[in-house]
Design a protein that fits this description.
- It contains 21 helices and 21 strands.
- The chain is α/β, with parallel strands linked by helices.
- The chain folds into two domains: 218 residues, 3-Layer(aba) Sandwich (Rossmann fold), CATH 3.40.50; 270 residues, UDP-N-acetylmuramoyl-L-alanine:D-glutamate ligase (3-Layer(aba) Sandwich), CATH 3.40.1190.
- The strands form four sheets. A ten-stranded mixed β-sheet has the order 10-21-20-19-18-17-16-11-12-13, with helices on both faces.
- Strand 20 and strand 21 form a beta hairpin.
- The chain is elongated and about 85 Å long.
- It starts with a strand and ends in a 6-residue tail after the last helix.
- The protein binds ligand NAX, adenosine-5'-diphosphate (ADP) and potassium ion.
- The site of ligand NAX has 29 residues, from helix 2 and helix 3.
Length: 511
């Protein structure tokens, strides 16, 4: 499933019409028919529908939905907001087809005063006011219509996207429909994956309208959802006769005197995610406590200063030897020794280097070495860490997640795993995959450490992008399994996530 902006959708519509030769009116018929089918399947024929129609092609979809629902015998009232002379193109065509089919519409402004009473006799409001073509602030009379609809208790279903919500950004300084359900056309829209605009959508269902997928190759930005199918199809099965060396040698550099838990969580998650050998480098006093939790790992004791790791180059060189991946960061504390360690690993380690948590704070000083590195580098920032890396606010990062991840990945040639709900994986090529698993049970100290261990294990034996996207998927999926088993979200712990990884991984049936 792809994710598009309004401009991209318009350009793909145009390519489909002009190059492929499928007329816009056919796409509109497909859209309206698909939406009417979903409405009937979901609510049944006996419900009363109230369709509010705007002046653009989103309104055109509304005329098709109204006609098909009426053809099917549903009770439907249709109201248009603009002057009838405003309709043009495909929307005008479908308005005429609606009328020629013997159906009638009324002006919204003529019923405005009595409409709360009318709505009392209505079950479902279908919002066909504004779609992907909206620009700037919502103007009158649309702003008032939207405000009135939002005051009602009726179920609201939006066509394509909630009217007033921009498709490609979270810029929302005006009234927008708060839908219970959105039937989005062909592909989901970027704003559905942004914290500020997501709540307006309600439940989302996708309605295919017949656009050939190969039209997508014309887009400069490629964004897609990495779901169960992608995980299963990209998964590399371990060989039946595999030995532990084949399953990846993973290094985790984590923990300080005050934070042994981070190393235990990351190490344990790496082991549970199938790493052949996991070696944890940490301070000497942590080893007994961590080893009692992660029995399968091996341990390397690094030199330390005041309870924080301060390895020598010789220690680091010995640790790097033979490893396919090294994750550095969880629970290390921010020290000058850490910056030296990160710089050394960036220059000398030839495997996949994963920088997380405190190690991310060294990146600003290490920018040029990151760009010069030829082996893959992965960074796993949460929005606060990403904001620190680009000198912006967290709110800026949350509103511009796609652009921020994509441009950082391209500029520094790294894989960016931008965490939070709908974690994004951006590749150095700019290609983006989005995760749809996970829940607020993960919003806890230590969840990120678990993900880091999982990432380190998966990149050691799979191609890098599928490994990252699938690690993120499984991490969230384990939390979703716990939620399904009626665990209260607030009580889910990072250790619970690790325990549920075998069940999560079972979708890739490794028999
Ligand atoms: N042939 C096509 O292009 C297809 C388009 N489709 C539908 O068409 C929609 C996009 O259609 P359009 O590009 O015509 O745009 P919209 O229908 O989203 O809205 C454009 C209309 O809204 C007005 N408008 C724009 N910004 C406004 C604002 N801030 N305040 C108030 N009014 C504003 C414009 O004057 C214009 O009349 C999609 O969301 C989808 O529902 C589908 O029918 C599939 C086929
Ligand atoms: N509400 C949420 N929905 C889905 N995933 C979440 C949510 N809150 C947090 N997460 C996930 O939990 C992890 C938290 O990581 P992070 O903030 O680095 O925690 P820590 O460093 O304390 O371990 C990330 O993978 C993030 O995507
Ligand atoms: K709409």
């Amino acid at each position: 499933m792809r994710i598009v902006t309004g401009e991209e959708m318009a350009s793909i519509d145009a390519i489909t019409m002009n190059k492929v030769g499928l007329p816009g009116a056919v796409l509109m018929e497909n859209a309206g028919r698909g939406i009417a089918r979903k409405l009937l399947d979901h609510y049944g024929r006996k419900r009363r529908f109230f369709i509010v129609i705007g002046s653009g092609n989103n309104g055109g979809d509304g005329f098709v939905v109204a006609r098909v629902l009426k053809d099917e015998g549903a009770e439907v009232q249709v109201f248009i907001v603009p002057e009838e002379s405003r309709y043009k193109g495909d929307a005008k065509l479908h308005k005429r087809v609606f009328e020629q089919s013997g159906y009638r519409w009324k002006y919204w402004k003529d019923i405005e005063s009595q409409w709360p009473a009318m709505l009392y006799e209505t079950d479902i409001i279908v919002d066909a006011l504004l779609g992907t073509g909206i620009s700037g602030q919502v103007k009158e009379p649309y702003a008032s219509v939207i405000a009135s609809i939002n005051k009602l208790k009726n179920e609201i279903v939006s066509i394509d996207l909630p009217s007033g919500v921009p498709a490609g950004s979270a810029e929302l300084n005006h009234e927008a429909i708060k839908a219970d359900r959105t039937l989005t056309l062909q592909w989901t829209k970027v704003s559905y994956y942004l914290e500020e605009t997501k709540p307006y959508y309600g439940e989302v269902d996708v309605v295919p309208i017949g656009i050939p997928p190969n039209t997508l190759r014309h887009l400069a930005s490629q964004r897609y959802i990495w779901g169960k199918n992608e995980v299963v199809n990209s998964w590399v099965m371990s060989k039946p006769n595999a030995h532990k060396g084949d399953n990846g040698r993973v290094g985790i550099i984590a923990g300080s005197e005050a934070m042994p838990g981070a190393a235990a969580l990351a190490g344990s998650a790496a082991v549970r995610s199938g790493a052949g050998f996991t070696t944890i480098a940490t301070v000497a006093q942590n080893v007994p406590v961590i080893a009692s939790h992660v029995k399968e790992a091996m341990y390397t004791i690094f030199s330390e200063k005041h309870g924080y790791l301060a390895p020598t180059e010789t220690e680091l060189a010995a640790f790097m030897d033979n490893k396919q991946s090294i994750a550095v960061g969880p629970g290390l504390g921010r020290t000058p020794a850490l910056t030296k360690m990160v710089a050394y690993l960036l220059v000398h380690f030839k495997g996949v280097l994963i920088l997380d948590a405190d190690a991310l704070h060294c990146l600003k000083e290490c920018g040029p070495i990151v760009q010069e590195r030829t082996a893959p580098t992965v960074i796993t920032p949460h929005p606060g860490e990403m904001a620190m890396l680009i000198d912006q606010s967290v709110s800026y990062v949350n509103k511009n997640r796609f652009e921020v991840a994509e441009s950082y990945a391209e500029q520094y040639g790294v894989y960016v795993v931008l965490k939070g709900p709908n974690t994004i994986v951006a590749e150095p090529s700019g290609c983006i995959s989005v995760n749809v698993t996970g829940n607020a049970g993960l919003a806890k100290g230590g969840s990120g450490d678990v993900l880091t261990g999982m990432v380190a294990a998966l990149v050691a034996r799979q191609r890098i992008q599928p490994a990252l996207s699938s690690a993120v998927f499984f991490h969230g999926y384990a939390a979703d399994l716990l939620a399904k088993q009626r665990h209260v979200l607030a009580t889910i712990t990072p250790s619970d996530i690790i325990e549920h990884l075998p069940e999560a991984f079972s979708i890739v049936d490794d028999d």
